[in-house]
Input
Amino acid sequence: MEKQELVEKINSALAEEFEIDVEDITPDADIKKTLELDSLSLVDMVAIVEEVSGVKIKGSDVSQIKTFGALYDYLEQHC
Amino acid sequence: MQNRVVITGMGIYSCLGKTLDEVRDALYSGKSGIVFDPARKEMGFRSALTAKLDIPDLKGVLSRSQRVYMPEQAKYAYCATADALAAAGIDQDYLNAHEVGLLYGNDSSAEPVVKAVDTMREKKDTTLCGSGAIFQSMNSTVTMNLGCIFKLKGINLTVSGACASGSHAIGLGALLIQNGLQDMVVCGGAQEVNPFSIGSFDGISAFSVRESEPEKASRPFDRDRDGLVPGGGAATVILENYETAVRRGAPILAEVLGYGFSSNGDHISSPNVDGPMRSLQMAIRRAGIGIGEIGYVNAHATSTHVGDANEAKAIYNVFGEKTVEVTSTKSQTGHEMWMAGASEVIYSMLMMKNGFIAGNINFENPDEDSQHLLIPSHTIEKKFDTFLSNSFGFGGTNSTLVIRNL
Output
């Protein structure tokens, strides 16, 4: 899957699950603030990204990924 | 001196309707909520009969972070409880300012467990179960969800007493109020309807296989009954200290006069006669009324051979030959299991408030036990002011409530 296609699929899935406008998801946006994640819903974000991308995100890496841009880069590096 | 306990609000989400008016009309007209579900046949069910109701879409009503922890029965319970609180004149400001309790009957949450296990087996990654799975899977899922959504601050726990769960929840709530430990308790029962929840129940041949006539399949007390039909939904009653209800000008609907309970100490699935009898007698004794004051008996009768026969014997032994109308609303709803004790209080309340007794539909021929009971098969007009409601469950747990109109 091309990176842009993956980005669009992830953004669409996250916007639908967390009930926000997909336009609010930008590369520089903070993931937790944009999706209004707490410690529980963070798990759902990771699960959705893993489902869509097929990339397993290590638990220790999750807290290091702050923005959507960083998330896309992580997935590109690990796919 | 014990406090008097009154019912000040009711709400229900059932196969007979989603409002009290809808349910009242369905009871009166003898409507059946039972259908044939082809998907169950494909899953290998012996009987594909079930009550039919839709899972409420709460998007736009509750936030995503509230909904994600709710299995279907918690959604039913939310609808029933929101309606019951509104009917009782209770808003969020009141709940914030008072110590309101919550006792709700529930005894399974199978579908979330099955889905999580399927995910673990297939994906080998527990993260993919999602954050909601644990909270949806726990038996206390209904009370944990309702307690958080309505921000309740009193007692908060699930009553698991098999098919008597909802009735015990009301009885225990009444005891807390009688003894001054709570002034208001939200009580009820909830039951999931998905096939996973009752597949193993189907496996012990407990269900009716009268699949060609779904609406005639649930036939409590009838000679030709061949098993129960599973149902579900949720029902909520608001119990309140009479004095505080009067002070706040609440709509006082009825009084919980007596709660009786017992355990058979016998077989895990086959009920006996002595245990239920003791439950009935205790409820009537604690109500402090004469047996002749009871104008209607809402039987537990689920349409099984042994269960209905033994309950008929117990009722006959307590009430005598054809002294009071006895019906099982399960003839219309199927067996609402964990919900049944609460929903059947509401069904009986609706009859009492509207001066009728819903017929025990499909009761066409009595057997040697039910012939001694007065069982109308069609709705009759009758005013009564006190009723008794039975609920019995696997393991031999019995609960009986006596409730009087106010």
Summary: Residues 310 and 400 of chain B are 15 Å apart (CA to CA). The two ends of chain B are 20 Å apart (CA to CA). Chain B has one domain: 5-395. Chain B touches chain A at residues 59, 64-65, 68, 125, 127-132 (CB under 8 Å).
